[in-house]
Amino acid sequence: MTTERTTLLQRIVVGAVFVFAGLLFLRHAMPERYDSDFDIAAFVALPVQEGGRIKPADTVARTTLLVIANRTTVRDGDERLRAAEWFTEFALNPARAVERPVFRVEHPEVMGILGIPADERMYVSLAEILPHFDTLRSQWESIPAESQLRTSYEAALAKLRDAIGLYDALSHAYTGPPVLGRADTGLRMLRRALNDRATLDPESEEARTVENALSLFAGHFNRAARTTVLATVPPLEGADDPLAEWSNLGSVLLEATETGDLDPLAVTYAEMAAAFRADDTAEFNSRVADAANLLAARGHPPAGKIAFEHFFNQLSPFTYAAVVYLLVFLAAAASWTVWPRVFANTAFWLMAAAFAVHTFGMFAHAYLMGRPPVTNLYTSAIFVGWGTVLLCLFLEKRFRNGLAAAAAAPVGFCTLIIAYHLSFTGDTVEVMRAVLDSNFWLATHVPTVTIGYSANFLAGSLAIVYLLRDRLFGGLPAPSARLIEGMVYGVICFALLFSFVGTVLGGIWADQSWGRFWGWDPKENGALMIVLWNALILHARWAKLAPPTGIMQLAIVGNIITAWSWFGTNMLGVGLHAYGFMDAAFFWLIAFVLSQLACIAVGWLPRLRLFRLRPEPVGPTGEAPPRAPGDLTAG
Amino acid sequence: MKTIHQFFSSIRLTVLLLAVSTVLVFFGTLDQVHYGIFHTQQRYFESLFVVWSYPVQWPGHELLGWIELPLPGGYLVGTLLVINLFFAHFRYYRSGWRKSGIILIHAGLVLLLVGQLWTQLRQKEYFMWLAEGESNNYVESFHTDELVVIDRSDPQRDRVYSWPVEAFSRGQTELRHPGLPFRLRVVGYAQNAAIFPMEQGPPNTPDLNVTRGIGADRNLTFIQIAPTFREGERNVTTALVDVVTPDGPRGRWIVSNVFRQRDPMREFFPRQTFEVDGREFEVALRFERRYLPEPVKLIEFRHDRYPGTDIPFNFSSEVTLGDPGSDDARRALIYMNHPLRYDGLTFYQASFAEGDTMSMFQVVGNPARWIPYWSTLIITVGLLLQFGLSFISRFYLAPAGAAAPAPRPAARQSAAGPVK
User: Fold this and answer.
1) Are B98 and B84 in a shared domain?
2) Which of A514-523, B81-90, B352-361, B403-412 shows the lowest per-residue confidence on average (mean pLDDT)?
3) pLDDT tens-digit profile of A304-348?
4) Based on the domain organization, do B299 and B283 belong to the same domain?
5) Which residue in chain A is spatially nearest to B336 when comparing CA positions?
6) Residues B82 and B111 reside in one and the same domain
7) Could you say which of B291, B316, B335 is where a domain stops?
8) What is the DSSP letter of A431?
9) Strand B340-342 to strand B345-353: parallel, antiparallel, or no bridges (unpaired)?
10) Cα–Cα distance between B44 and B34 in angstroms, integer?
11) Min CA distance, A312 vs chain B (Å)?
12) Stretch (H or E) spanning A54
């Protein structure tokens, strides 16, 4: 569309923006390098079974750190450990790992229990927690079971309790429990005892001593077997059965005390850990390779998938897309002050690039789940942003003036931030409960409804751009105003179609599965509210009951209703669609509603001019504005 | 007349009703936290008026507890919407294919609303618990109870006389039937009750003078307590009944649905029977039953979990329909998203218990279940016509030169509001 000539300065600035985006992508796509000769990448690429599926240890490393520390790196003094480095140490050298400050404590009074000044830091180590464990335990007893009833202090306590529980449940995945106080000697002693039992005269005094020692070991192994949720030893046969259960190290060792046979994988893990603690990099690297070979020989089925998941984790496509969406918004906003057409084009192409990575990430995640793209709240957040950007690309492709980009980029950015925070609850590639087990309906009803959310957010966001520019920045030029009105109208028509069809498909799914079409379940009601509201806006517009400003305000109310339908209904904890109360999200929902109400109120302000903005290029080279898509009242 | 017609046909009314519907659905969702889905549904969507009040559980109730919001109920809003639609149709109708989408959308909507009304009036929800190897020829209601007298004098088959409890919750106390040699007099009724032995009650516990059955054997009494509307909880519906023959009263029984409950892990109480004219009768208050033409038998319940977790991977129940001994019994597998349709009812896998040996089916009867399919098909076609065709024709099929058409006529602009 650009026919005007660009200046050298413009080319340099735009080029720099794209070079930055490209370099950032390379940084994401290149394999992580660690400041160590230990082959940490190979260690975290080893498969494990956790949460009902097989995944690389890398996923466990990242999700665990996200849950307990709410970030993917550990800062310990000047040292900075990435998730994989922290996890390797946690798994193989637990005595050192307990000193790492990984537990995020979110309340000064909880810090007070630990005897740490609250304004000093937010992260504590297990070593700092353990001396106060009895005090903590007595406090845990008074936490209400229902999360809605907890105070912020109790919520922080519960969070710490759950984090310590998770830490404990992942311990002893590669190293056995410390027997007789020493982790290093455990395996050697066990092997010697097993060897003695096989050779000694069963009646002898020594044999009885050996038996006593073995039963002592068995007690420790038994506890580890019961508490460890991270299974690292696949069965020797039946690897192609998706329900085949892997063993954790504790139960493998426990079995060895009975049968006398020690699984070679357990031995390899122990040697690996010993080499790690002895700082013997060559030995460690060769043992990791051994373990990888042993695991491969047992034919755990998705070897390629494990490697792909490791790559996907490192790429973190959604983080990249979020950063670039921020750039898109900046470029679009810049187009209102300087170089309108150049920056509008920049915004479009940046958005296309971010969208490509976003799309790849979404389908990669779906491939890892073995499910259609939207299956839980996390994936719905990914999809809502994706849908909004997709719709925006259609608008920008036609109008290329940065208006839709300025509206959609914040939605894309915010939904990805929401997704990131939702990942604090654990692995986002979840196995699915049997109740939702229907790929056909997951692939039809859910994306259709979710695209409806996307369209509503895009309409609401366009309306915010309209009102803010019109009221705070000295009035919107008539062609731009008419263009946005048309876009909002078209997007709401689209939203109504998709919300309605999606809601109805949900009803059909419900009838097929449960024998009732409509159950007044909160999530169903939320979808109905969106449909009703979209219909209301369209009728108000057709009958000219509200001026454009009023229609824009109604579209922003649509944002509130969509957010309610998406998140608010889940917070009620009622009905078949309830996937758990999210107390932290409640605060943000209220904050969002207030922000939207503020934007609506802007529509009633007298026209101000906080800053002078340029009119955006509407239509190619000074032509009149294009007519809105789907505008039925015209012509 | 003209103003009434203008009022009912105005799009202003449509917008108002849509706004009211949105608000109604919102508060009808909020109240589910405190009243459960079923009760809220009745209050908000199956009513003419409803008053929302500031929930006691919310913060600041001491100050804001007086806040109340009266709203028209679902039946009123739905009716007004349909009336509005009819009037508007005749006021604004213009022939031509461009408007065919609008007509289809609105016709489908009317059908959808009527279907929902029919469903709400006629839909019944039941459940059925079966242990492996067990069979049953009835399903039980989730929400309603019945008072029954069962004539056991015929060894081949029982004869059941049933009265819904709503009858005597409205004050009807004399229950009689030509087939019975006695009448029942309901002298006490509690929608939800606490039943306990007299000696465990506070000093002024009322003595109900129960002379027969479980109540007499265990010296029980009951008091009325607030009904529960929570999801998954059920009221202990209880009544105090006298059996009165022409010769005089035969005694007083406490009947309660907890006495007849056969959920897993609940105590079984003995049946409360008595004789009149040499015929044996049983009196009971129980979950309302619907009998099936043939018994359903659970052969096997299966339940797999994801490895190392308690997350269900699948559930399935293998059942047979029909006389379990005969060869022509029909086999069926009920599993997630694959319910069994039988005798106008839909049986779907809902729960399980007792170490995966008992299975619960939720059973729904909805005579209007096909209406949403037809109405949504009509509406979807209408929406596609309305938005899709005009979208494509304007957005893509417009010739390149017309991609940026001239500004709309000035009249349109002013009609759409001031344009600056």
Assistant:
1) yes
2) B403-412
3) 888 899 999 999 999 999 999 999 999 999 988 888 889 999 999
4) no
5) A435
6) yes
7) B291
8) P
9) antiparallel
10) 14
11) 23
12) strand A53-56
- Mean pLDDT of the A250-267 span: 87
Length of chain B: 420
Q: Give the total number of structural domains in chain B.
A: 3
Quickly list DSSP for A556-597: HHHHHHHHIIIIIHHHT--STT-----HHHHHHHHHHHHHHH
CA–CA gap between residue A276 and residue A40 (Å, rounded): 10
Q: What per-residue confidence (pLDDT) applies to A238? A: 67
What's the token pair of residue B365? 């009867």
Chain A residue whose CA is closest to B17: A536
- Pair B239, B253 in one domain: yes
Q: Which pair of tokens denotes residue B206?
A: 């009322």
Closest Cα in chain B to A517: B369
DSSP class of residue B257 equals G
- For A244-258, A612-626, B368-382, which range has the lowest pLDDT when averaged over its residues? A612-626
Distances in Å between the Cα of A622 and the Cα atoms of A177, A470, A619 are 75, 21, 6
pLDDT band for position B262 (cuts 50, 70, 90): low
B168 and B310: one domain? no
pLDDT value, residue A386: 97
Please give the Cα distance from A368 to A361 (Å, whole number): 10
Min Cα separation A281/chain B (Å): 33
**pLDDT band at residue A300 under the 50/70/90 scheme:** low
Asked if residue B412 is part of any domain, the answer here is: no
Of the partner residues A478, A536, A574, the one whose CB lies closest to the CB of residue B32: A574
Give per-residue pLDDT as tens, B86-119: 888 888 877 777 778 888 999 999 998 898 888 8
What is the reported pTM?
A: 0.86
First to last CA, chain A: 26
Facing B372 at nearest CB: one of A496, A507, A619? A507
The residue in chain B having the minimum alpha-carbon distance to the alpha carbon of residue A437 is: B336
Torsion of CA A561, A565, A571, A573, to 10 degrees: 140
B216 with B283, same domain: the answer is yes
- One domain, residues B155 and B280: yes
Range of the domain at B314: 124-130+292-365
Both B151 and B282 in a single domain?
yes
Asked whether the predicted pLDDT for residue B218 surpasses 80, the reply is yes
Whether residue B206 has pLDDT greater than 80? no
State how far the Cα of A505 lies from the Cα of A450, in Å rounded to an integer. Answer: 12
How would you classify the pairing of strands A123-125 and B68-72? unpaired
**pLDDT for the residue numbered B405:** 40
- As a dihedral over the C-alpha atoms of residue A524, residue A528, residue A531, residue A532, rounded to 10 degrees, the angle is -170
Does residue B327 register a pLDDT over 70?
no
- Please check whether residue B408 lies inside any domain of the structure: no
Cβ separation of B19 and A536 shorter than 8 Å?
Answer: yes
Residue B253, in any domain of the structure: yes
Produce one character per residue of A438-451: b if its CB has 16 or more CB atoms within 10 Å, e if not: beebbebbbbbbbb
Q: pLDDT tens digit string along A87-102?
A: 999 999 888 899 999 9
Rounded to two decimals, the ipTM of the complex is 0.85
Rounded to an integer, what is the distance from CA A82 to the centroid of its chain? Answer: 17
Q: CB distance B18–A624 less than 8 Å?
A: no
- Indicate the angle between helix axes A8-29 and A317-334, nearest 10 degrees: 170
Q: Do B339 and A512 touch (CB under 8 A)?
A: yes
Q: Which of B291, B319, B350 is the last residue of a domain?
A: B291
**What is the secondary structure of B50-112 as a DSSP string?**
EEEE--TTSTTHHHHTT-EEEEE-HHHHHHHHHHHHHHHHHHH---SGGGHHHHHHHHHHHHH
Tell me the percentage of chain B whose pLDDT exceeds 90. Answer: 28
Q: What is the mean pLDDT of chain A?
A: 86
Helix intervals (H) in A179-302: 183-199, 205-227, 249-259, 264-277, 281-297
Torsion on CA atoms A548, A549, A550, A556, rounded to nearest 10: 110
Inter-chain residue contact B416 with A539, CB threshold 8 Å: no
Structural domain contains residue B416: no
